[in-house]
Amino acid sequence: MSQEVIRGIALPPAAQPGDPLARVDTPSLALDLTAFEANLRAMQAWADRHEVALRPHAKAHKCPQIALRQVALGARGICCQKVSEALPFVAAGIRDIHISNEVVGAAKMTLLGQLARAAKISVCVDNAQNLAQLSAAMVQAGAEIDVLVEVDVGQGRCGVSDDATVLALAQQARALPGLNFAGLQAYHGSVQHYRTREERATVSRQAARIAASYAQLLRESGIACDTITGGGTGSVEFDAASGVYTELQAGSYAFMDGDYGANEWGGPLNFKNSLFLLSTVMSAPTPDRVVLDAGLKSASAECGPPAVYGESGLTCTAINDEHSVVRVEPGATAPALGSVLRLVPAHVDPTFNLHDGLVVFKDGVVQDIWEISARGFSR
């Protein structure tokens, strides 16, 4: 084959505006615009009702188009989990970003200083040495950055867990050049997936009490603690009502997934599935089994295989690199070869990170393709 012919071969886009979903090339990640916008409005209304700021977590989607819509509806800013992840969002015009993580390493410090000159950036700390490194980096960059002391409210991951260290870090942050002490990071990730609503309520309230005790310690020591940021989709009902948090960091609420779907809800917040993995039936080897063209390279499966949406009697029983096996239950209708199914990913965040673009649709018709431009930005 000639080089001219090879150079003329290009991968076409998965879809064009106006295409029906059935014509989307698969596997493709797709967003139901109607459900998505309803989820955004519901969460913003919940935050407004409780007079707490919403700072959605962009690690869930890595898509500036989504973040811009959240901010337009009233979000204070966004969270990112890594320094590099913030780059596409700053480039898109987001000007208030909390790096909800500790940042260590010379290259990351340099990048953080550059970002802090372009936008309002905050970052977590739980170590005095890290504070000194941050200060030196900001002085070198001619920038300032907000720092929040991360406290462990029960997850057992990052964060300090004693009064003396919390107080010492806050005092050090106030004293060092280039740093502004802004408050506390108090996130409990595990509670988001406790299955019963009662258990999530109990543990979330315990976390809020721990955060409140540290804030009181600081205030009694003459240190303002203006920000207490944390919370997530599974606990936000209780986080907002606690009166402790000033910011909510929920992210998955905009999309939902299979793991959140396994939670008991029943409260005032019931978010809808808006994110789907479109996948085509590529094989129908037996009457009780079909095989789809989406696998582990299209959907994260550490929380289980994806679920078939809107079709009774179809269960995804196995997922491999480029295949998903679907069992057709007795009495159910097997989907035809070439038909496109909607799958609900088990875990939103890593699934977004497997895709370059998001097919946005409304009433079954493609409206746009949004770039997932922070995909792979994990440094």
UniProtKB/TrEMBL annotation:
It comes from the Bacteria. Residues 274-362 form the D-serine dehydratase-like domain. Keywords: Lyase, Pyridoxal phosphate. GO terms for biological process: D-serine catabolic process. The keyword Signal does not apply. Its cofactor is Mg(2+); pyridoxal 5'-phosphate. GO terms for molecular function: carbon-carbon lyase activity; D-serine ammonia-lyase activity. SUPFAM superfamilies: PLP-binding barrel. Belongs to the DSD1 family. This is DSD1 family PLP-dependent enzyme. It comes from Alcaligenes xylosoxydans xylosoxydans (Achromobacter xylosoxidans).
